[in-house]
Amino acid sequence: MKKIFASAFLMLVAGGFAFGASPDENDVKMDRFITDLMNKMTIEEKIGQLHQISGGDDIVSGEQQVNSPGQQKAEMIRRGEVGSVLNAKGVDKVMQYQKVAVEESRLKIPMMFAMDVIHGYETGFPVPLGMAASWNMDLIEQMARVAAVEASADGVCWTFSPMVDISRDPRWGRVVEGAGEDPYLGSEMAKAMVRGYQGEPGFESDTQILATVKHFALYGAPDAGRDYSTVDMSRLRMYNDYFPPYKAAVEAGAATVMSSFNEVDNVPATANKWLLDEVLRKQWGFDGLVVTDYAGINDLPRHGIGDPVSTTIRALEAGTDIDMEAYAYHYMLPEAVKSGRVPMYVLDRSCRRVLEAKYKLGLFDDPYKYIDESRPDKDFFTDEHRAVARKLAGESFVLLKNEGNILPLRKDATIAVIGPHGNNRPMMLGPWFYPHDIYRAATVVEGLKEVSGGKAEVLYARGCQPFESEEYAKRVYFGKEFEKDNRSDEEILKEALDVAAKADVIVATLGESTEMSGESSSRTDLNLPKPQQDLLKELVKTGKPVVLVLFTGRPLTITWEKENVPAILNTWFGGTEAAYAIGDVLFGDVNPSGKLTSTWPVNVGQIPIYYNCKNTGKPMDQWFQKFRSGYLDVSNEPLFPFGYGLSYTTFEYGDITLDHDSMGEKGRLTASVTVRNTGKYDGYETVQLYIKDVYASIIRPLKELKAFKKVFIKAGESVTLDFEITADMLKFYNYDLDYVCEAGDFEVMIGRNSADVKSAKFKLVD
Ligand code: BGC
Fold this sequence. Notes:
alpha/beta, binds beta-D-glucopyranose
């Protein structure tokens, strides 16, 4: 109440964004306010708005600190040469920075504080690839809301999320940060996250923060899956397969866009006028601001498109508003503007966009809107937030195999948790998660004890080292120490086998370590690390039932494991509550319902592999046929298809019925299917609808996801689902890049995953 009153009062003073007023009135007021302000600004102050610096350093005063990095930053802020700060962690630190800006700089322009809030802030959620596997967009939106509440309680008003880069290559470590390989699912997730972070239009409350859609564009398609490497793709593929999630996020109102490190059509995204101006602003109508990726402008000369000054100018002219941490605008633009090399209107355009973002956030009304030191205690890691995280973690897990229904486990069993991930808190979190306390997450051992209500006897042994060598571990952890066990490999294994001998069941907790996926973590071998493979083989040899609880940030080539381990539950990196969610699922309190959102390859040679591929002129119908598109050594079948995931129950799909067998461009038809729960457990099923354009003017994919519904079906009951098909769902970018649908034959497919569908045919008529 107090806040609303305060900002209403200040609105009169600053001429702020009056939410009751019509949009035009708001715009006029905002424009007037910003024009007045810009009239007072020097060139350096305008450039300052485009300069984003890292907030890692404390801004302290005192003789002994003179010229410390913090002091130098404070000095720049005082001179009006900084517009925003990234990664200032902690509301007290944010307060220090903001005070200098609004109390000590000439024009007292508030700064924005940004952070990579990727899968939660203090309450840890599954990594995004895991969240996507829940196919539960409401829950994902709630995740983003919770993250926004917690981050804003710590002074953050801007998150660098969602990352919506489509990727078909699991060698690329950053698949973990996105929704997987599908443009439609990726778009739905992008929208849900933007809605969650930003809330209702207007940024009225102090929990609504700016979202950033990144990394624009095509960052997920580097050659050979090597991070930052060359991207080269046809415009048709961009428009039809890779652009949709960025566009969806923009349409959902994402306030900011981050340009990517890679090139798009031979020009780095950060300096690519076609991409940032023509596509983003003109074609999609984006009117927010564009920020570079970390020091991205410094990469431009290395890409070989010019010297530092000319490339810096090119970035600004292309439409890159904010320079994150490269200091290129800061050092090079003053001279470039004064000499006339950069027209003033180009600088003004970007400066205005930054000021507009601040205005819309309400920072001119109240620069301390997001800086309330009493909030962390109230808003961090609350029971309510943790409950959302536990639910989403449980729904993100994918049951890959459950031979002989060895899952769920009895709560009174003796369970041997074996593997380096079983008793390790940071391991639950995954990359891109920086809470104040990384030791807050429960371990698998604790989770099982808690969920069994103390009935299970839970034993633990580490079993092996997580990596084959210390050198590898150092590369994974950027030189940081990892928890090494100083015993010999034989001793570690012997302990594990002794523990296993006492148990009814072995829960093998293995997989990638938390930093093995993420930025700059590409891999060419997607197996479990060798010591873990060896351990698993020993555990299987004991003859005890083995459940592999898998940790990963990407699809893995677990071919041997699929053949030889009776049960596999993929848990990604599930966050602070993951251990309880693992308990929920292993003991059957929660029936697993996650489904993969990327195709898992049999081996690395099959990559890139994705379900929505094209037919080719020589498709291989069965393995092996000479002069057909395939391999001599493996079939084209993946290890697990897109959309795959089991449940403790079974679902049977009836045939598809269509209410019409044709429709016009303005019409619609309904495809219905009845799904029956034929097993013993109640459960959720994600019913997926795919469409194929049988003949089109350009080659179209074999099938494309166009809708899905996650439904709860009680054991023995059935549900009939109706999917409405409209002409919009049949549209694609044609050879001339016009977005069209073409009359002709279509196939609609509905099923439990992309490879197991029923189908029916219909026509689109002129
Ligand atoms: C990453 C971005 C991130 C930025 C700021 C970069 O290295 O690519 O995803 O938002 O750093 O931390």
